[in-house]
Amino acid sequence: GIGDEGLSVNVWGPSDLKYLVNAMRSFIPRAAMVHTRSFGPSLNDSTPQSGSSKPKDDPFVLVDDEVVKISAILLEPNRSEESRSKPGETSVIYVCELPEINGKFDPKKAMALGLRAGPKYGILQSGQSVKSDFKDITVHPSDVMGPSVPGPVVLLVDCPTESHAEEVLSVPSMKSYYSCPNSSTDGAKFVNCIIHLSPASVTNSPTYQTWMTRFHSAQHILAGHETKNMEFPILKASSTITARLNYLCPQFFPAPGFWSPQHVNNNSCVGSSPDENISAENLLKFTLRPHGNLGLDRSCIPSQLTSSRVISELLSEIPEIRGKTEEVKRLWNGPHNKMMIEEPWLGESIVPSCLENVRRDDMEIVLLGTGSSQPSKYRNVSAVYIDLFSRGSILLDCGEGTLGQLKRRYGLEGADEAVRKLKCIWISHIHADHHTGVARILARRRELLKGVSHEPAIVVGPRPLKNFLDAYQRLEDLDMEFLDCRSTTATSWASLEPPTSSEKTTGNGSGEGSLFSKGSPMQSIHKRPSSPMTDNSSALPYLKKLKKVLGEMGLEDLISFPVVHCPQAFGVVLKAAERKNIAGDEIPGWKMVYSGDTRPCPQMVEASKGATVLIHEATFEDALVEEAVVKNHSTTKEAIDVGSSAGVYRIILTHFSQRYPKIPVIDESHMHNTCIAFDMMSINMADLHVLPKIVPYFKTLFRNVVVEEEDEEEEEERDDEDDDDGLVRDKVSSFFIN
């Protein structure tokens, strides 16, 4: 959707692909033209999508031109004739065939057959016969052309289960691709390479191994969820920053999951012949043309990035970082956590009573994505994982790649556990960078809890999100229940139960002030007043379920409130239940507020009053306030001002524009209770008192990065200015104080 015209994209896929893409149109930019080319019978009706007159088992030809022919063979799981395949069970084998290469023309043979050099040579090479110039004979192409070279054939096989593997043995249209030594079957095509997307549990099965042996001398590339590829990161830029931050402050930046001691079990695929089976690696290639280079190409496989290498380079680049790391450790020691870096703007604030003797297994905020709009080299899009440990977890927004981020943070097994205990996903608005990871997370949760007694996940989001998820569920069950954000406002919660005595006294719910006064029409700021409200009566059963789930997680409230961004855009308040301190006295639970995307607004301030933590978007630097207004986002200072006006204890800035690749432009004078978010940052409630004190150390860690980026900009503007040491120092400080 970039630009006024966007791009035209053709998407091929089986059966009900069109339903999914139609649902996605609610958040795909209008400029992006997506054309679906679905093939095969629809699983939701009896009408085939294309090729209705062709025999059932014939391949679907998708592309056929002078460059390539691509066909699709549908693969259903092996089942009894009475039972019908369910949505999402159909897989595809794609066949890629390149045209044959004609043999070389032999001019000596042509001359011997009485041909004069000239146009007839070209006619013969095009495959047509000609009359000899000096003999009374017809010269055929085969008389003067060498043997042609068959075009390479590649199969891309998705065989997700052993039931599919049983079926693949009997697919009639595959027979022409089988080849055996010392025999030449008429019409048989030699397959050069087969890329197996199937998991190891399938490719290692006797059935699948038997099928693989039918392709004599084909190169098998096993690319199905290879766990060994998780051992070393492919996203080197973000992994390097994560490792550097971990070295500086492991308390807020735990070791990434791909370098964790758990490592990987050796469940790599093995086939009938080690020489023919290769475990896929990132950026491994198989060359098809030119024919002389046919085969595997490992030249682009990146060198492995290890944490020891990253840290060695860091210490060489910034030797003093070793001492800063020791200073950071001491921030957690001593009764007063004395500052090791003297910063006048870092004042001490009173620790709220809700953090009195708080346990480390109370709550942890894990920032999985801290960038805006689209993923960059260093920041993924929005996702905040609220870890309540043994009591469960909640996701606040879930942009694309969130499951991958969980794996990078926790490792493979840890990510599965994080998904398994997920009870609720809350989505702020319908923009794609905030929700396109939801379906994948829910599908993985369903897989992990299969056969285990559990409750469906509760998804709270804007109404258009339900349309997309409902369409997706025609293809794959997501095991979820949906609640409109407008059904989780304070007004809606008030209709669930009679007001408590304290609410009667104050006249509002949850003690949140006039924003949450009963009876007020809770709408998105940008929603027309005439728009219909959600029918709360139909939502009551789901509200009761959500209330029960919140109680099990030790939470008292999950309250959505409208913000200024787009239609049906919301922020959210999470409040923990009261608990007893060591003396046995009741103390309030913590309160966390997440802004989603918004301009500063009274609703945001009201909702944040007295919050322990405010996670607020800060898309733009202060100098770009006009752009922030146009796009309904906030600047860093505006976000901090919201928290200051509401008396928030700690502010976490996130959702930075990707124009700030590593660290945003900030004004340190406002940062006394504020911290910048990075991907994989994990903030335990027990560490909140230290949070702002870590900010000055970022200045050291990113010192060289700052100089380089500023230096590039100033080189363009500078003519004859002297580049002395003072200028370099000025550039370092000006980055932070703007």
TrEMBL record:
<keyword id="KW-0479">Metal-binding</keyword>
<keyword id="KW-0255">Endonuclease</keyword>
<dbReference type="InterPro" id="IPR047151">
    <property type="entry name" value="RNZ2-like"/>
</dbReference>
<keyword id="KW-0862">Zinc</keyword>
<dbReference type="InterPro" id="IPR013471">
    <property type="entry name" value="RNase_Z/BN"/>
</dbReference>
<feature type="compositionally biased region" description="Polar residues">
    <location>
        <begin position="493"/>
        <end position="507"/>
    </location>
</feature>
<dbReference type="GO" id="GO:0046872">
    <property type="term" value="F:metal ion binding"/>
</dbReference>
<dbReference type="Pfam" id="PF23023">
    <property type="entry name" value="Anti-Pycsar_Apyc1"/>
</dbReference>
<keyword id="KW-0540">Nuclease</keyword>
<dbReference type="GO" id="GO:1990180">
    <property type="term" value="P:mitochondrial tRNA 3'-end processing"/>
</dbReference>
<dbReference type="GO" id="GO:0042781">
    <property type="term" value="F:3'-tRNA processing endoribonuclease activity"/>
</dbReference>
<keyword id="KW-0378">Hydrolase</keyword>
<dbReference type="InterPro" id="IPR036866">
    <property type="entry name" value="RibonucZ/Hydroxyglut_hydro"/>
</dbReference>
<comment type="subunit">
    <text>Homodimer.</text>
</comment>
<protein>
    <recommendedName>
        <fullName>ribonuclease Z</fullName>
        <ecNumber>3.1.26.11</ecNumber>
    </recommendedName>
</protein>
<keyword id="KW-0819">tRNA processing</keyword>
<feature type="region of interest" description="Disordered">
    <location>
        <begin position="39"/>
        <end position="59"/>
    </location>
</feature>
<feature type="compositionally biased region" description="Polar residues">
    <location>
        <begin position="39"/>
        <end position="53"/>
    </location>
</feature>
<feature type="region of interest" description="Disordered">
    <location>
        <begin position="493"/>
        <end position="537"/>
    </location>
</feature>
<feature type="region of interest" description="Disordered">
    <location>
        <begin position="708"/>
        <end position="738"/>
    </location>
</feature>
<feature type="compositionally biased region" description="Acidic residues">
    <location>
        <begin position="708"/>
        <end position="725"/>
    </location>
</feature>
<comment type="similarity">
    <text>Belongs to the RNase Z family.</text>
</comment>
<dbReference type="GO" id="GO:0005739">
    <property type="term" value="C:mitochondrion"/>
</dbReference>
